[in-house]
Design goal:
With about 350 residues, the protein is an alpha/beta fold. It has helices at about 1-5, 15-20, 65-80, 100-105, 155-160, 195-205, 220-230, 240-250, 260, 275-280, 315-320, 330-335, 345-355, and strands at about 10, 25-30, 85-95, 110-120, 135-145, 170, 180-185, 185, 210-215, 230-235, 290, 295-300, 305, 310-315, 335-340, 340-345. It is elongated.
Length: about 350
């Protein structure tokens, strides 16, 4: 069972081989930070001749674009298999690889939803001065197919962003300071991503309890943020030294309380017919509904329609006619009198939900 072998742990091994053992359609969200194939051939130096701590690791080296494309196609194919029908995948990259990744994603029938530009507020300078300062990376967000009913917490992200629609350009700093994992004073992983980046990704496109997979776990940022946000995680990593620092990192994380993680701004009242309030005896046939100022009233009929001197129709149609509108929300227009006080029928509907529908 996946729950015993892979869940909530970092598994050592080649990502393609480990992915082959994960059950199909068992993962809700994937965040992949694959090798970028930077093709660096020489050491980078600053103007003062000091060495730049770049990415020269063996795992980022491929003999050709053909080899890199084959590798990319293989791991993305396995990710598609393990991803649930309504799941999504994020892949981050730079100009060295992201366009090749995007082509392969589309070839494999993923449906691209957005490309997000992570604009680094503290990018590494271009020391040679021969090109523009490379100050961003690109993330592709894609669903498993065009028909996927994917998770996206639009309202929560808008609230997160001071009631402004979240844009596709994200200004976030590189991972630095105390967050940067180090071994004997040297950074533990050359491409550690900031937790802020993963926080936004996981918060926006998954739910509490979902399974989040990272096939290139590295320093364990995805797993760490997933755990903090009440998600389950699966990490895959080749090198034991990275697994060791990830496990140490994970041991210090306590998940947030469930009530803190609830997406209350996303909640919508389930569809409840006005007639259900009559059947449950919260509204009675023969009584009157009133506008808030009591200038208009309508008689409740047994079939749930309202009757005025001019019209017999639904709560919505009657209120729209009174207001001389094409449409109107009758739930917020009409009130019922209880104990000499007017109560919105929308509040009566909420009472129905609490007593008859809520589990």
């Amino acid at each position: 069972m996946m729950e015993n072998i892979y869940l909530n742990k970092i598994t050592q091994g080649d990502c393609i081989e480990v992915l082959k053992n994960i059950p199909s359609k068992s993962v809700d969200l994937i965040f992949a930070d694959p090798p970028y194939n930077l093709q660096l051939k020489n050491e980078l130096q600053r103007p003062d001749q000091s060495q730049v701590d770049g990415v020269f690791d063996d795992w980022d080296k491929f003999s050709s674009f053909t080899e890199y494309d084959s590798f990319t196609r293989n791991w993305l194919s396995e990710c598609s298999r393990v991803l649930k029908d309504n799941g999504t995948i994020w892949v981050i990259g730079s100009y060295h690889n992201i366009f090749r990744v995007g082509t392969i994603l589309q070839d494999l029938k993923y449906w691209i939803l957005n490309d997000i530009v992570w604009i680094k507020s503290n990018p590494m300078p271009n020391f040679k001065g021969t090109r523009f300062n490379n100050a961003h990376e690109t993330m592709i967000w894609a669903s498993k197919s065009e028909k996927s009913k994917f998770t996206f917490h639009y309202k929560s992200l808008k609230t997160f962003n001071d009631d402004l629609q979240m844009r596709s350009d994200w200004y976030l700093p590189l991972c630095t300071g105390a967050e940067r994992l180090k071994i004997n004073g040297v950074k533990a992983h050359s491409t550690q991503k900031p937790e802020e980046l993963l926080y936004r990704v996981i918060l926006a496109t998954s739910n509490v309890g979902d399974v989040v997979l990272d096939p290139f776990s590295g320093s364990g940022t995805t797993a760490a943020v997933a755990k903090k946000l009440g998600r389950k995680f699966i990490g895959i990593e080749k090198e034991q030294k990275y697994i060791d620092i990830s496990n140490e990192r994970l041991s210090e994380i306590n998940p947030l309380e469930t009530e803190i993680l609830e997406y209350e701004v996303e909640w919508k009242m389930p569809k409840i017919p006005f007639g259900s309030l009559i059947e449950s005896k919260l509204i009675f046939p023969g009584e009157f509904l009133f506008s808030k100022d009591k200038k208009n009233l309508a008689l409740v009929l047994a079939d749930g329609s309202l009757k005025t001197t001019e019209l017999t129709a639904s709560i919505h149609k009657v209120s729209a006619t009174i207001l001389n509108k094409t449409n109107n929300n009758g739930w917020t227009y009409w009130y019922v009198e209880r104990d000499r006080k007017l109560i919105s029928i929308d509040d009566i509907r909420k009472l129905y939900y609490e007593n008859f529908l809520k589990l």
